[in-house]
Amino acid sequence: MKEHRTERVSPGTENDVIEILAQFGWELVNSQEIYNEHTEVDGVEVTTYGNDFFGGIMKGATGSDGKISVKQRQVVTHFVALQFERDTSIPHYKKLKELGDDYERCLSCREPKKPIKRTVVLAIGVVILLISIVLAIIEGNSPEVWELIAIGVFGGVMLPFTAVGWVLYKKRSVSYISVLQLMQEIWDKALELNCNE
Description:
Layout: E1 2-9, H1 14-23, E2 27-48, H2 53-62, E3 66-87, H3 93-107, H4 116-138, H5 145-195
Antiparallel strand pairs: 1-3, 2-3
């Protein structure tokens, strides 16, 4: 008996997907690149000149009561449709299927993003507030009460918010690295099974 599956992938990832699925017993039977480009109407804007003095001048100058602008956008559909099949009687089918399912579950794990935006906001805010305090001191004034309150509130909110972001990023990074290691282990097991056919 044969199993079938179809994948829609971007042209740049076609070879990677074929290689990954081949590792788990899938054979490519058909590949078709789909490219479609068309224009869609995104809206219509109607401008009428009106019946006042200015409208009369515009009507006389253009010979019309107004204008119609049609907004359009280009829509591009570009992907590769890959069709695969796998024979259920291949050696180690059950184990390859299980490893393939585990591998695909790992693919849903995304690399965490660093909390750069909140770090930049914190740094800019602290620099601005410190500059205003230093300028006040240079001019011989003591910092305004609002500046001290702003530093306290801003630092009291943004500093923990940023710190929590980095702690969560670190935890997620560790999890992501362990998922990558698991994927490598799965890949190695599948490779070993394929070599033992």
